[in-house]
C-alpha cells in the first residue's frame, strides 16, 4: 500500500499520502509530517523506519494545493532551498492542519490499525505536530526541531494528547532566545516533555544530511520509540 488518496475536508480536492505498513497487525499509526522539502526520499525513509518499529506510517502531501508531489533535496543546492522556502511561505497552515486531521481520521480506520494514531513532524512538520497536539484528536505527538514555536505558546493551553519535543541547542532557525521562551512557556505543562540536544544544529536527525549527528539522533529516536510504544501500543 504505497499511497492512498484522501478528500480534503474543505472540499477543495484530493491529496495523496505515502503509506508504509508494518509486518504485524493490529498496529498503531503515525502521521508523518514533512519538512519544507515535501514527501521526499528522506520522509519516505522515515516512514520505513516508523513501519520497522511496528507502526503504520502515513505521510500526507501538505503542499498539494500549491504543487502536488513535491520532492526536494535539502542538500541539492540553493535553488532547492529557494523553492522549499517559497512553498513554505505559500503554505496555508490552517488548511494543512485540517489535512493532518483528515489523515489521522483515515489512519484510525485503516485495515490493520488498532485505532490509535500519533503525529511526528520535522522542521515545518515539527511546528505542525505542535499544532496537532493543540487542535487535533491525535493520541500523541512528536516534534523534531519545530520552527516558530515561540509564537504558538498561547495555543499550548489547548494541548490534548502528550507531546514530545526534540530541540537542537544550536538550531540556526530557533535561536537561544526563542528556545528560552519555548521552554519557559511550556514549563509546568504536564503533557509536554522537551529535550534539548547540546551542540547540534537544525535537522540533526536527518540521516546523511549536513547536520546529521548520530549520537543526538540515536538518543532522540530512542525516546521517540519509547513514547510511541507507550501511547500507541
TrEMBL record:
**SUPFAM superfamilies hit by this protein:** alpha/beta-Hydrolases
Q: Which InterPro entries match?
A: AB_hydrolase_fold, Dienelactn_hydro, Dienelactone_hydrolase-like
Q: Name one GO molecular function term.
A: hydrolase activity
Q: Which residues form the Dienelactone hydrolase domain?
A: 17-231
Q: Which UniProt keywords apply?
A: Hydrolase
Taxonomy, superkingdom: Bacteria
User: What protein am I looking at?
Assistant: Dienelactone hydrolase family protein
Q: Which organism is it from?
A: Sabulicella glaciei
